[in-house]
Amino acid sequence: MPWWLFCLLLGVEAQVINQNIGAGTGQNIGSPGTIFSGTGNNPYYGVNLVPFGPEAGDLKVNPGMLTAGQTIDLHMFFPFYGGLYNYTTLSVNGYIGFATVLDQGPTINVGPESTDWPRQEDPAMIAPYLCKQQACPGTPESYARCDQQSDYFLDEMMRWLQEGVAGASMFRADAALVVTWHNTASAIAGRSDIDAGQSATYQAIWLTDQPGRLSYVILNYDRLGFDAQDFRANSRSGRCRALFNGGNHTGVVEVDPTQAYKNTPKVLAQRSGVPHVVRGRYMFRVDDIVRPAGCSNKTGGTFPMMIYPNIVNMLGEMTVDVNAMCLDRAQTYILMIEEREVATCNVLNAAIARCSLPKIYDWGTKTVYFQPQSRGANDEKAFVGYIYFVPPTLDPQRLDIGNLYEWYKNPMPNYLMPISWFPRNFTNPDLFNNLNQVGTRISDDALYGVQLGLYVIGYREYKDDEIKKFRPEHRTLARIATYTNRNTFDYRWKAQEEVINLNQVQQWYLNDWERWNTLYTYRVQQWYLNDWERWNTLYTYRVGYLKLAPMRPNDMNGTELLAG
């Protein structure tokens, strides 16, 4: 009798709910009639699957509930389409559900286009491969307990996400639900079909943080041997689908919107959203909506871009990470901003590009378009996304510099001010610019070890009669402190806290006159103005701001600060 597996793993500071559905495998690999899929050292799972089976701590789902699904407790809340769920239902039919799924005949209908809700149910579900299925016969049964490797497992899953999802470096997973469908076949397949290799092995990993505000889903496809529940691969009925359904017509997101998937769903095991890592793997960000991550070969427009951060300082000179099309290091990519300058982009890996934004000087949402610079030659269509540009005071990633009101008191009551930032927002420019040569991965902690300078930026504007408007000028005046960006594991989500001594400035970017007559109360590490400018122009900068940025070697002018 075949079986499905599930288990609950508890770590020191985390929970992992590891649920595997399908044929569980013990160590008796010579059992007659047993079918195995996958490659690598372990014969039970392929290179793109996490370990499953009794040795991984899986438990059995009741065999009598394979089709209708068995409901289990999650022991904490997982967010999905705006709802928080502490339970789920697992079915052999290839879905993780949150409502009752009635038997509708050969096809399981979900989504706004396939159901007439509220007359007909539209259940919410995560469906890696939704169609009528059965577990292959002849697989031995076994029960297992949870193991104690949950913390290590969560760490590995977070590293996986960093390599494929823009913005996942700040995500801290506290629980994971792992479901594996092993050696399933179409619902009316016979033994000859199964022996011919028409079986499937695939996996869903659902991770969430402790507050239950954000979650990610990783789908792994080891083997897909059928396109539908119909026999002999005719695919005339019961077409298999891979999707996220919000339920009650709130929305549906296909795992792969390409034409190749529509022709034959089996292509999911051959392609990947992270082609630089492994085949058959797809990643999604799941909270109030489902956002595809990784990359897609879908031509632009219908495939939304993942942009992090998507709320950006209007002063620019910072970077955003983008998930869009699958990238080629030999090509140059650009991010076009509505009615503004073009942002240049660097390829981090095949799934993520990092774009350096210019100054925008506008408050509001702007449409952005990501595409290769050689669009005309290859006829690619742009991927479309949105970025919300805000003033510096509303920037979610602004520097925290203590009590803001004390900065305006004269004299200042305290010249020691706290400052804090998140270290994973800064990368070492030397390693970053040579990712393809040194082979550094985004999850490598060494990439975030860099010296940071705290700079004073002066602002002034003057009337330009030629353009009939005021022309803004941002000038780096001085560097007042230097810090070492902490790149240890716990600073992935933890803020780094330091202190500014406003009576000590490392370097001025003003001349002697300006320093002696306008800023005599401060000492700096380095000036970025010459003597004449310090004597004659410093007073014209009536306002300014602080900027934390990676330091460049032999930085003597400060005219162009590196983005984080």
TrEMBL record:
Listed GO biological process terms: cell-matrix adhesion
This protein's name: NIDO domain-containing protein
Domain NIDO: 128-289
Signal peptide positions on this chain: none
Alphabetical list of InterPro entries matching this protein: Epithelial_Barrier/Signaling (IPR051495), F54D1_6-like_Ig-like (IPR057018), F54D1_6-like_Ig-like_2 (IPR057019), NIDO_dom (IPR003886)
